[in-house]
Write a structure and sequence with these properties.
This protein has 213 residues and is an alpha/beta fold. Helix content is 45%, strand content 19%. The chain folds into 2 domains: 151 residues, Rossmann fold (3-Layer(aba) Sandwich); 61 residues, Guanylate Kinase phosphate binding domain. Strand 5 and strand 6 form a beta hairpin. The structure holds guanosine-5'-monophosphate.
Length: 213
């Protein structure tokens, strides 16, 4: 098969959601480091850049006016308001990557994931869980980036998000980071093996029988 394999492979949609403080960014960074060919959906956001974030790399940073204009033109396949800012995924670049056979990773919130599930119902939807509320509080405090008020808000949001965990395809509990990474990677690789992502492969193999029969 070799080179032909690529021709018959469509890209996988991998959506990863988690309550704030669960370790989503760390696990996603590990996965992208291990699989550098992963297409990453760079979202549009109305929030201001943080730290070393660069426009076009972590996010496309846009004004509220631009975001609303894009939204009304139907540019987004999903969008949501998170912590007072708008976030959205532009449809075109995602479709282009998938058609080229590139797997695409989405780091989005639960509201957005629910919308994507309608479009990419054959995608792989993973929910990362913190081992407990106490551990989540410990991690949020340990980051040292959030005020007491912000932590309280994130915990309230977390319980709402956990209530949505039910409809996801996979759950990964981030208790031990390496163990959680292994599970996330396994879920990603399993998703790649779905027959729906490999149209033509079986026909191709069957032809090798016909040619020799
Ligand atoms: P942050 O501002 O900390 O980078 O992200 C806040 C939350 O917004 C995270 O849960 C992140 O996954 C989510 N988010 C980032 N981009 C998008 C997007 O395009 N759509 C949706 N629905 N959520 C997003």
């Amino acid at each position: 098969m070799g080179q032909d394999d690529h021709k018959f492979r469509l890209g996988e949609v991998l959506v990863v959601c988690a309550p704030s403080g669960t370790g989503k960014s760390t696990l996603i960074a590990m996965l992208r480091e291990r699989y550098p060919d992963f297409g990453f959906s760079v979202s549009y956001t109305t929030r201001a850049p943080r730290g070393a974030e660069q426009d076009g790399r972590e996010y496309h940073f846009v004004s509220r006016e631009t975001f609303v204009a894009m939204r009304s033109k139907g540019a987004f396949c999903e969008w949501a308001e998170v912590h007072g800012n708008f976030y959205g995924t532009a449809t075109k670049p995602v479709e282009a990557m998938l058609h080229q056979g590139q797997d695409v990773l989405f780091d989005i919130d639960v509201q957005g994931a629910k919308q994507l599930k309608k479009t990419f119902y054959k995608g792989t939807f993973v929910f990362l869980l913190p081992p407990s509320r106490e551990e989540l509080v410990r991690r949020l405090k340990g980051r040292g980036t959030d005020s007491e008020e912000s932590i309280a808000k994130r915990l309230t949001n977390a319980s709402g998000e956990l209530a949505q965990a039910e409809w996801f395809d996979y759950w990964v509990v981030n208790d031990d980071l390496d163990a959680a990474y292994k599970e996330l990677e396994a879920v990603y690789l399993a998703g790649k093996c779905k027959p729906s992502l490999r149209p033509g492969i079986l026909d191709n193999i069957m032809r090798t029988w016909e040619n020799n029969g």
